[in-house]
Write a structure and sequence with these properties.
The complex is a heterodimer of chains A (312) and B (261). Chain A has helices at residues 2-5, 50-58, 79-83, 100-110, 115-124, 140-152, 170-185, 198-201, 222-228, 242-249, 274-281, 284-287, 300-310, and strands spanning 8-18, 23-34, 39-43, 65-70, 86-89, 158-162, 190-195, 207-212, 215-221, 232-239, 255-261, 264-270, 290-298. With 312 residues, chain A is α/β, with parallel strands linked by helices. Bound molecules: adenosine-5'-triphosphate (ATP) and magnesium ion (MG).
Chain lengths: 312, 261
């Protein structure tokens, strides 16, 4: 079934808000799919429809036209069964006015999760000392952790994170990013992150969706987009003799930088020259020692600029 | 296959959660009003009973709308999203609010009116609550308790359903004020005024029928044995009960079809 490989599918979805003064097309005939088990970045300028897309996935909003399906069902009609499989961190969450532990226990009950699950997650997000505090008394950083905690209860298969690192100090930001990286390793979880903060997203995403004024401008695996838009990409190469390979690569003019590590190399190239790189690596004198080649990431900031340039 | 047991379990869980946050003061008020009424009847403190009768139930309705207004606040400030994100359906959420703001209080006041009287002297609940008759009609504590229950169910349900339709607590307050205060007041003014002009008070009495679907407590006295229009107790109680049910179903329909959060 297609819903297995793509937990989220939008087909020609339009969402119109009928204001008293202004009619807003928050989504305009948008079609996209989020592939299963990827970390997808949902990018776009302010007001482009990112939060609206999340609300449609959650079944909070009814599409004006088109079809939204999440795990193969319509979330507006059968929302509760869908939502129990999703962890959602809203952009501006407002929590019930109770102590943190009461709220999290409530979420666990609704989701049929255990008390142990709650304690584990509280520790995981670093909320341990704060469970007796009222949700309304938490600082913004801790509110964000609470948001992650409630989203993670009950082992969701899909995580929707709307600006997960907003309002966080640099250290907390790091922690949250590490957490997302750890989650990524978990089997079967799909993560969608809506954000503007690109450099940090770069470390975790492998799929990109760029929307502007409610329209999908571009979508695809990061590697594919990096190649198509000629942006720099970082390749990780595990090799027996890194120095030897490095000295060969630096002479290639598309190679922008080489960093030698223990038994490995990180090579920065213009992604359009991926084939060239692979050709060099397949030369007999190097290929023997090479154990693994993998694209680490690419320059999202550069990609973002090119995408926003192309959508004007 | 959907398990109705699970649905009911979540609704009760949600209602419990909402109650623990907001409703305590109002529930205390509900029980107090009921007990005063009950003991007032048992110990024949008629002035207390008479003043609590209609005013008490009106004040309770206002308190209950003030409580239900929290639902509209949750919808507009986004708290509802956290409940739904946990795994509630929109319908379960709205129904749990009906439990907290309508069903529990209506059941609570009925019990608080009847139980103390039953404990002190079971016979009192079937006796007329005032020695002198209102228009020749003397409802018992039992009838008054049932009428109060139905009136609360009816007025608060209608106000909530229309409030949901327009996603506005202002509309809910307005509808309740209309049903509980304005309609009885304005209708009696119109009937008396037109009656005075015609020189016949009973001429326009049928206008009071407008109150039948919403106001069993008033209807009890208005359509009593000495009035030109006489209705049976069954009519007086069942019409507003059916209207309450219809508006409850309307609220569910609105929630399912169009309530965005
Ligand atoms: N409930 C609403 N009523 C009216 N207009 C709305 C509503 N929600 C969103 N909009 C409008 O829809 C458009 C898309 O909003 P949305 O919140 O989805 O953008 P976004 O991509 O999340 O932006 P940001 O990066 O600022 O969070 C905006 O023009 C916004 O004003
Ligand atoms: Mg947003």
């Amino acid at each position: 079934m297609h819903s297995m490989s793509e937990p989220v599918v939008f087909e020609n979805v339009t969402k119109i808000f009928w204001g008293s003064k202004r009619v807003v097309r928050a989504l305009d005939n948008a079609s996209f799919k989020i592939p299963s088990k990827t970390v997808a970045g949902l990018l776009g300028p302010n007001g482009s429809g990112k939060t609206t897309s999340f609300k449609l996935v959650m079944g909070f909003l009814k599409p004006s036209s088109g079809k939204v399906s999440v795990f193969g069902v319509d979330p507006w009609v059968r929302g509760e069964s869908v939502r129990r499989r999703i962890g959602y961190l809203p952009e501006k969450p407002v929590y019930p006015d109770v102590p943190v532990y009461r709220y999290l226990r409530y979420v666990a009950k609704v989701r049929n999760a255990s008390e142990e699950d709650v304690s584990r997650i509280v520790r995981l997000v670093g909320l341990s000392g704060y469970v007796w505090m009222n949700t309304r008394g938490l600082s913004r950083g801790y509110l964000q952790r609470l948001g992650l905690a409630q989203a993670l209860i009950g082992d969701p298969e899909l995580l929707l994170l709307d600006e997960p690192t907003a309002n966080l100090d640099p250290l907390s930001r790091r922690e949250i990013l590490e957490l997302i990286k750890d989650l990524k390793k978990e089997l079967g979880i799909t993560i969608v992150i809506a954000t503007h903060i690109l450099p940090e997203l770069q470390e975790v995403v492998d799929y990109l969706l760029y929307i502007n004024r409610g329209r999908v401008v571009e979508s695809g695996m990061l590697e594919e987009l990096a190649t198509r838009y000629y942006v720099d990409a970082y390749y990780y190469i595990e090799v027996e003799e890194p120095r030897k390979l490095a000295s060969r690569l630096v002479v290639e003019d598309y190679v922008r930088g080489v960093e030698i590590r223990d038994k490995s190399l990180v090579v920065r190239i213009n992604a359009a020259f991926k084939e060239e790189l692979l050709r060099v690596l397949s030369l007999p004198e190097y290929s023997i020692g090479i154990r693994r080649v993998e694209m680490l990431t690419s320059e999202l900031g550069e990609l973002y600029e090119k995408l926003s340039g192309s959508s004007r | 296959m959907k398990s109705y047991r699970e649905v009911a379990g979540r609704i009760v869980l949600q209602a419990e959660f909402l109650l623990s946050m907001k409703a305590r003061a109002i529930y205390v008020l509900v029980v107090l009003v009921g007990i005063v009424y009950s003991l007032g009847t048992v110990y024949k403190a008629y002035p207390i009973v008479a003043s609590f009768g209609i005013i008490g139930s009106m004040l309770l309705e206002v308190a209950l709308i003030a409580l239900a207004a929290a639902m509209f606040d949750e919808i507009s400030d986004g708290t509802v999203q956290m409940y739904l994100a946990a795994g509630l359906s929109r319908l379960e959420y709205v129904v749990s609010w009906f439990l907290v703001a309508v069903v529990y209080p209506a059941a609570g006041i009925t019990a608080a009116m009847l139980v103390p009287a039953l404990v002190v002297d079971p016979a009192t609940i079937a006796m007329p609550i005032v020695p002198y008759t209102i228009g020749g009609f003397t409802p018992s504590l039992l009838i008054i308790a049932i009428a109060t229950c139905i009136q609360i169910l009816n007025n608060v349900t209608v106000a909530l359903a229309l409030g949901l339709k327009y996603k506005s607590k202002g509309i809910a307050y307005l509808v309740l004020a209309f049903l509980a205060f304005l309609m009885p007041l304005v209708l009696s003014m119109i009937v008396s005024f037109l009656g005075a002009l015609a020189g016949d008070y009973y001429r326009y009495y049928s206008l009071y029928l407008l109150m039948l679907p919403f106001n069993p407590l008033y209807s009890l006295t208005i359509f009593s044995s000495s009035s030109p229009i006489r209705l049976s107790l069954t009519t007086i109680l069942s019409v507003p009960a059916v209207v309450a049910l219809v508006f409850f179903l309307l609220a569910l329909y609105i929630t399912r079809r169009e309530l965005e959060v």
